[in-house]
Each structure stands twice: as structure tokens, then as C-alpha cells.
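Following the same procedure, sequence and fold were stored together, as reproduced here:

>
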Amino acid sequence: MIKSVASQVSLFVGILAMSLFSCTSVNGKDSSDFIELFKHELQNRALAVVAVANAAEDRKGKPDGEFWHLYSQLEQINQKKFIPYAEKYQLTYTMNMGTKIKLTLSELYSSIYPKHHLSLLVEATAKYVDKLKELKKLSPADDKEFFRYVVLQEKAQAESLKLLEADTGLAIEKMRAFIATLK
């Protein structure tokens, strides 16, 4: 009986040790960093799906209207891809109060200073790609493909927005080409 209990305890300790050491990049501080970065990205996506849809509606019929329409399509695709992972990690895909305030202020600023707002958006999106690379690095091995997509879609947004500053036609082509790879 004692031998049986001892062997069960040994088995339990062995399984526990293997499970702790088999966690590749998501453990300890890396785990909390991963969750914080992913929460931030989910807030970013929740904001973007609304902000970009609003921009698409506002810009309809204008030279850059098609770009914003395509961008809105990308955010709808993103929403379908992101929600299952938000649920997997028991996180929310809906905007918190801070994100709602950010959306309101961003749209207000955009309505007053549209070109400067676009410049700020271009700069922020380009910088954000690096944060998402860190998120991918910290992600669990079995989710690497999804987090690779997270980086790719942000990079496509950054490149398209940069093009939009100079050449709407090229920005539209870039966004359309990226969306076509998703179908």
C-alpha cells in the first residue's frame, strides 16, 4: 500500500515536472507578458474594427473610400480569426472604457486634422509591428501560426497606410492583394 502511494506520488511529481518544463515560451514572467501584449492587441483590434468601419462609411465616394472599405473588410476577417483565440485565453474582444475613449478622441482628431491623423496612424502602426513580433515570440508553440498572422496583418496595414499617404491606388492594390491571400 505504501509502495503504491509512493509510486503514485512519484508519477504525479514526474508528470508535473514534465508539464512545467514542457511549457516553451509561456511560463512565469513570459506568460504574463504574453497575456498583457495579447490583451493590448485585442483592444487594438476591437477599436480598429469600429474605427475603420466608421472611416469606410465616412470616406465612401471619396478617392480613398475604396481603401477604407478594403481595410474594413480586413478588420472583419481579423475579428473572425481573433475571437477564438481571445476565448481560448479567456480574454475579451470588446473595447474597455479606455479604448472607447481612445476611439472617440481619435475620431474627433481625425475629423479636425485628417492628414496629421493619418501620419500619426502610419507612424504608430509601423512601430506596433515590433510589439507584435514580441507577442509572436512569447506565444505558445501550438499557436505560433496564428500569431505569425497577427504580425503579417499588422505589417500589411502599416505598409498600406504608408502608401496611402503618397499613392491611394498603390495603397488599394496592397490592401486588396493582402486580403486575397486570406481567401
